[in-house]
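Lecture 7 notes. Example A: sequence first, then its structure tokens.
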Amino acid sequence: MSYPGYPPQSGGYPPQAGGGYPSQQGAYPPQAGGYPPQAGGYPPQAGGYPPQAGGYPPQAGGYPPQAGGYPQQAGGTYPPQAGGYPAAAGGFPPQAGGYPGQAGGYPGQAGGFPNQAGGFPPQPGAGGYPSMPPAAGGQQGYPGGPAPGQPMPHYAGAPGGSNPPMPGYGSVPASGPHPVAKGFRGSIKDFPGADPLRDVEVLRKAMKGFGTDESAIIELLGSRSLKQRVPLVAAYKTTYGKDLFHDLKSELTGNFENLVIATLLKPAVFGASELREAIKGAGTDEACLIEILSSRTNAEILEINQVFKAEYGKTLEDSISNDTSGHFRRLLVSLCQGNRDERENVDVSLAKQDAQKLYAAGENKVGTDESQFNAILCARSKPHLRAVFNEYQQMCGRDIVKSICREMSGDVETGMVAVVKCIRNTPAYFAERLHKAMQGAGTKDRTLIRIMVSRSEKDMLDIRQEYVRTYGKSLYTHISGDTSGDYKKLLLKLCGGSD
């Protein structure tokens, strides 16, 4: 027989009669008793596989040329044959009652995937994700969602529906606009293509022989992120069999040495060492204790606790308890548990209750119930506390910081105020800490080093903005005028620029 589109073969199978594969004119192969013959071969629909402009020419006896584009079938389905899948609008092949035949659903959406109105995501809907218009006779949203007319459940922390709104960041009221994610706000980023083995070679050359190339050390450490700096310690020992910290300490001195060492320490190790320095010896650096414990996450505090016990043979809590007293000790012990609520969603009614409790514990009674302040300030989430501070202001017409200063004194006053400031606006709190470290006679270099190193990859850009807004000159300018030499150069690298 002669196959469509191929030259006739000699000795091929003879044509059969009576229900076999008959030799047909230009089609393949409607047999008697088989699938119903379709006019014009396979597939004879409008919208089949057409000869396109510039494509292959139709062959003699081959598939017949059809009219239309590819694959402009009726309804956009493939292929609507007699007895096949029913033609469904907008997908392949969403049958009636299939999964999930909704307008705007997935994958049988009108307009394909993901060209929904407004893009994907988000879909229109009040707060939930994703709330889609119900299909005729179908469900609302994804399969298994609530019946029409019922509200979509909201994911944890999502504002909308019956959930209360989240408070704004900083001093924005809870009822105000939601904060917009700013992305990365640090001044030090990953250096493209950084290689620890090449970097330790640079450090080795900078320290080898007579003299030290401080500029090479500054350039290297000031352009590497924390996760690129910390591995240099192990890479140096692997390559040269020597301790990087020992070699740096033998070559460098003073504040520049302290700053260089700080940039190479893991955050938990650095935090534990700073807390140890704040506690040991005569006197206590209470501000350092509050600064670290009120600004770190639960995970960071727990890791600091582990490092502290391993390095110094004593728990952080015991060390704090032995070195402080009274309500200030209770405040620090509460903070060092690392057990603060870290949920982002806020219950406004609970925020109002907490504001009333603070008012009743302070301004509205004779004496002060410091334990109530401690319980709320150390356990509630930071977004919740921002809402509490706003509710307190509206309720009694006085800022929470002023109330604390009126009701308390000494270390507990200083500690409570610091916790409130750090939670309310962390960059502004650190801008104030930096300013106090540099103003007046002398510089509190330990504070300056600690903040510049620990915040350089978190919120240094925001700290710089708060600094110039509050003090009228840039942090970069103040550091330049208050420090000198290689110490200043590396600090300015961490600062990242002037505003």
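Example B, a different protein, same format:
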Amino acid sequence: MDAKTPAVLVLAGPVTREEVRGLCDDVRGLLETTGAGVVVCDVGGLGPPGLGTVDLLARLQLAARRAGGRIRLRDPDPALHALLALVGLAFEMEGQPEQREPPLGVEEAVEAEDPAV
């Protein structure tokens, strides 16, 4: 695996509290072996999101940060995305477009009653 290619950790099924520590160890190990600084967590198989999922992801992010890296989520359920935003946790999502200015030459629509600037 190339040092720039992030490793992928697939999270499936409901994860028990006993499994969380092992997954945190997996994240730290993947960061050390790849040297990429990012572990992609495929969360598509976690099932319906709940506070247990939020707790798991927060702990994985904390373990990654302590190891000098971070995690990126792949295939998150829209409900998981909303739940993370509700509790105030921001995660990088794979395939999410960057927020930036529109390209040059793109004009906004103007109403006829708008005064000229």
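Note on Example B: The chain has one domain: 7-93. The two ends are 55 Å apart (CA to CA).
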